[in-house]
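Before the break, one more example. Copy the sequence into your notebook; we will annotate it together after we see the structure.
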Amino acid sequence: MSFFHSYYNNTQITLLLFGSLFFLLSLIMHLNNKERFTILFLGLTAVCIFSFSALLDPFLNLWDERFHALVAKNLMHHPLMPTLYDDPVVSMDYDRWDRYHIWLHKQPLFLWQIALSFKLFGISEFTLRLPNIVLGAILVIITYRSGKLLVNKQVGYVSGLFMISTIYFLELIAGRQELEHNDFAFLAYISLSIWSFIEYYYTKKRIWIYLIGLFSGMAILCKWLVGLLVYFGWFMLRIMQKKVKFVENKDILISLFITVLIALPWQVLTLLWYPAEAMSAYKFNSIHFSTPLEGHGGDFWYHLDMFNTIYGKVASFLVIPAFILFYNKGKDKKLINSLLSMVVIVYLFFSLASTKMPSFTVIVSMIIFIAFASLFDYIINSISQFIRNVNIKPVVFSLSLIIVVLIKFDIEFLQEKHTLWKEDNQYTRMLSHNKEIFNSLHLSSTSVLFNVKGRHYIEAMFYTGLPAYNFVPSYEQYLDIKSKKRDIVVFDPNHIEIPDYLKNDSTIIFIDKEIQGYD
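Here is what the structure looks like once it is written out:
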């Protein structure tokens, strides 16, 4: 295998080795019914594998990771004022999401998390992705717990491992999949609200009412109103229970009040402080359902077609039997139906929506992983019925699980996509090259960068801390910049035709290093 002459660095290989060790220890603990140690080692496996993922790309990814990184970096200095252009020194229209001054294109919670990580541990690609590692480990543990409550411990354990070993989720953590940190935080908080809902169903303890409200509010503060998903499932459950009277649903109202209490203040604050930007963001969000924005369209079957991409090559063939077995093996049919209703409404809603993006439906992945784990558990139990030797049954389970995890965790695919193992990996070469150029610039703090190719002005601002633009300044902009005592720096690797007002100014700095990438 090419892994043994890998392009992974020593830290990544160490994390893989420790992740493998913790996985085997968790398996041993699970087979010996030592649940606390099982959860401990399962969580450590998640931390190692997700940390490995966070180190896959030593640069800011396209398309959105670079924007999120820059806004989060700026939030370190003013947490209640999200900015893309923190220093909008050039007089121009900052009128699009990719060049706003005040950036309300996304809700702020996941950005605050990144800003806090930057503040505590320094600014780097790894600390940018660190909140995903923490949330990912929590997600694995609550998936285990939910699977145990809904079906049994074995289903919980297997579903947690499925979460760890699914390539699509590793790439969300790595920042490679579109909307990466935003979608992963959204997934985590919605899953936390669903887990709290499951706990409340079985324990009836009041604390879970508050936690459902808290996590649903936090989900809204990541990616808006789909964060209310848990209430749809809760409402469906009450219908099945024939509990429709007001007095029977006070718990839902209390929880919903807490959700509003968490999510509403930011909406009010932005409308008061940044009314134009806030209204523009709300308008943009409102047309996602009716209009395919920025080329992100697709037919009704888009998300069903994406199912195999997210969950594995044969997942679409297994999902129906998985749901049937999840229902049959589940301890409470009404609760299982309420959870499956969440899956159905999410896929239906986003299939009907005009704007399509791959990760929109991952918010119900915890339920889907538990269903697949139920199928795996059924298959293993069916095989075990033909094995008379009791001592062989754990071996069959262990070997089957290890094989499935290894198939899902395609190490060579990751190496091919994220390292320089293949000569034709232009994406990694291109962004590594650009980062090296931006970090090599030693310019004064009064400098302003111009003619940065495409949208790579975002990475330029992140790495240099200087305002950057993808055009050559007009004469009026030139005079304005000069009046502000700022230094003009122009990228000119191809020796384009430079206007005379720049060419004749000896203070202008020209850089002949080429920024690679997309126009």
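The mean pLDDT is 93. Residues 426-511 form one domain. Try to locate both features in your own notes.
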